Amino acid sequence: MSDPSGVGGGTSAGLPAVAVIMPVCNEAVGLSGAVASVLCQEYDAEIEVCLAVAPSVDDTAAVAAALAGGDERVRVVDNPAGVTPSGLNAAIRATTAPVVVRVDGHSTLPPGYIATAVATLERTGAVNVGGIQRPGGTTPFEDAVGLAMASRFGAGDSRFHYGGPEGPVDTVYLGVFRRGAIEAAGLFDESLVRNQDYELNWRLRRAGGVVWFDPALSVGYRPRGSLGALARQFHGYGTWKRVVGRRQPRSLRWRHLAAPVTLVGVVAGLVGGWFWPPLFLLPGVYVAALVAAAVAVGAGPGSVARLVAVYPTMHLSWGMGFIAGRPRLPAGPQEAS
Predict the structure, then answer these.
(1) Rounded to whole angstroms, how far apart are CA atoms 200 and 157?
(2) How far is Cα 49 from Cα 94, in angstroms, rounded to an integer?
(3) DSSP three-state, residue 19
(4) Where residue 4 falls among pLDDT bands split at 50, 70, 90?
(5) 134: enclosing H helix or E strand
(6) 75 forms bridges with which residues in the sheet?
(7) 25, 80, 140, 185: least buried by Cβ within 10 Å?
(8) What separation in angstroms does the CA of 256 have from each of 57, 185, 285?
(9) pLDDT value of position 184
(10) Per-residue model confidence (pLDDT) at position 63
(11) 219 and 249 part of one domain
């Protein structure tokens, strides 16, 4: 098989070998299942799995070592920096396959994911392909967060959240990459705690590559389990989006400004309304919109009530991070992305 586009190293079946890279931290509970979902993929070429293990407060390192000891296709590398892009880059450098598949330690690949993604790479000529982030909770609250993240009111116009037609997009969930393209782009930016996927996809597109969304691809994702954890997650998203926006202003989209504009409007209305009452309409309109959105996507009264709390937590935390968040590397183990 010729390799003008960075996909090669195939077998007699004509398929390229694949390197699955997994940055893991505090993933002792779900890691075995995530790796099993990779190793049971029906794919007629070599699959190598590299676990980049960050300092954790649970038994992630021991679980990863046991997985590597039980299957020669799995290996472990250290990620002493503890941040996701460092782990991704360490795993990329430790592997050689021409196709690189990103998987998180709390994600589960469905059957046929790798074969479909590689076929889409070949068919489209894209440098990165991905599909839908499919939230799946184990509690009513996690289910509500999943519903919010999969809705336009919660996530804007990113197709990977809610689906849509196949085609070029600005970013995708996780990603299946041509090694040659990401190496030429300089790999992931290790100074970014979050938003490193979007930033890499921006550089890939600036270099002339295509990032392709294929709704036939989907990966399970477990949402946060409390309002506090959700607020920290979205505050981090907003904080690091501002960092990327300052470095690459043209990478910003309208959806990235919706949350900070909403926060400013709500605060201005609640404060300024005491001096000019019509300003109370600003938070009033937002509350009406979030209630309508909660009713539209909720699955019963309890779900609607939880969504009424989840939506503003997502929006206002993201907006606060974008406006006033202080980007810094974590001092201890990270939460999963």
Answers:
(1) 19
(2) 10
(3) strand
(4) very low
(5) strand 128-135
(6) 50
(7) 80
(8) 33, 24, 20
(9) 97
(10) 95
(11) no
Q: What is the mean pLDDT of residues 236-257?
A: 91
Confidence of residue 135 (pLDDT cuts 50, 70, 90): confident
The Cβ of residue 85 has, within 10 Å, a number of other Cβ atoms equal to: 23
pLDDT of 24-37, one tens digit each?
Answer: 999 998 899 999 99
Instruction: Of 226-240, 241-255, 274-288, 295-309, give the lowest mean pLDDT range.
Output: 241-255
Examine residue 336 and state whether it is found in any structural domain, yes or no: no
Q: Is residue 233 part of a domain?
A: no
Report d(CA 66, CA 5) in Å as an integer: 36
Given this model, what pLDDT does residue 163 score? 84
CA nearest to 140, candidates 300, 290, 292: 300
- Measured CA to CA, the distance from residue 39 to residue 131 in angstroms comes to 20
On the question of pLDDT at 121 being above 50, the answer is yes
Rg of the chain taking only CA atoms, in angstroms: 21
What is the sign, positive or negative, of the torsion defined by CA atoms of 154, 248, 239, 81? positive
* 69 and 205, same domain (yes or no): yes
> How many folded domains does the chain comprise?
2
Mean pLDDT of 174-185: 97
Pairing verdict, β 99-102 and 176-178: antiparallel
Contact status, residue 63 vs residue 31, Cβ threshold 8 Å: yes
Which H, E and C letters describe 163-227, residue by residue? CCCCEECCCCCCCEEEHHHHHHHCCCCCCCCCCHHHHHHHHHHHCCCCEEEEEEEEEEECCCCCH
- 77 and 212 co-located in one domain: yes
Q: What are phi and psi of 62, to 5 degrees?
A: -70, -40
